[in-house]
Amino acid sequence: MPNKSSQEVERSTINLLVSMKVKVHTVTSDNGKEFAELESITKNLNTQFFFTHPYASWEKGFNENTNGLIRQYFPKKTHFNKISDQQVQSVMDKLNNRPRKCWE
Fold this sequence. Notes:
Blueprint: H1 6-19, E1 26-29, H2 38-45, E2 48-51, H3 61-73, H4 85-96
Helix pairs in contact: 1-2
């Protein structure tokens, strides 16, 4: 992604998820300006978009935990233009099939 403008985040998010043919049920984000085009994202992905409250990153704890799991495969400063779609799909498959705690 060349920059974090709202238009670029919108384009990249839609292109990535549509091309991978994955069903996105919800998107949760902080209140960053890069998600100003959320209406287009929700329409194109047929999903719901939620924002956390300001300064309340714990409200997206599952996301933060998943980010940590992804970093096991792709450390910070990874150049994703050098990562193939197959590598991304492999990591997604591993994480989606990984046992997790169930809260009852």
